Amino acid sequence: MSAVDVTEATFAQAVIERSRTVPVVVDFWAEWCGPCRQLGPLLERAVAQRAGAVELVKVDVDSNQQLARAFQIQGIPAVKAFRDGRVVAEFVGAQPPQAVDRFLDALVPSEADGLVAVGDEASLRRAVELEPGRADAAVPLARLLIARGETREALEILSRVQGSFVADGLAARIALEQALAAGEAAIPADLPDAFAALDAGDRDRGLDLLLTARPAADGRKDDLRRVIVGVLDELGVDSDLARASRRRLAAALY
Questions:
Q1: 136 lies in the same domain as 237
Q2: Which residues participate in catalysis according to the annotation?
Q3: Same domain, yes or no, for 69 and 160?
């Protein structure tokens, strides 16, 4: 299947709007460009193999110079991938088939992506089977298990996730709850209230209680820090609550 030729008149609809439904790859090329003639058929074959999961269009830079300027095309072939109306990936120059495949695969949602989007327990379990290190599957699944008291399995799932403050914070919370259940003396008595507030969506109160409890949590201060950091990471860098809580945590630490 050949790529569709797009012009300045049709670009907005064929690329910008269409990319809100499916990823659109734009091949900026010219008839005189030898590497373009090498890359074009390769792109067409690779996109066809993905059976509609991604679409390909071509823009002749000689006939559409305003588009070339708008997207700062300085060398061709130049390939830009659009999703949700904006460029999300790009490369310049002819590429080998393996590189093109990697480029396209990064645009196409994986099976695990779809399962995470569904979000029920069966889907999350399958997503974790496919990609054990996915925090966006492991964390919600662990929360479902924790709510049922199945903390051992939750910890096992969380242990496979690397580099996620949220997953690490949830594992630390399990450790604290187990210490509470065991009657460990160093655990502040109002910690269950903090967790209950977080579960109810009251992060303001939950964080306040956690930060207040931390100085008295001898031997468990690092676990509390990990829980707090996990909550802050979920809130994001633009959250006023997160910024204020980070300042309180930093003051307590340093």
A1: yes
A2: 33, 36
A3: no
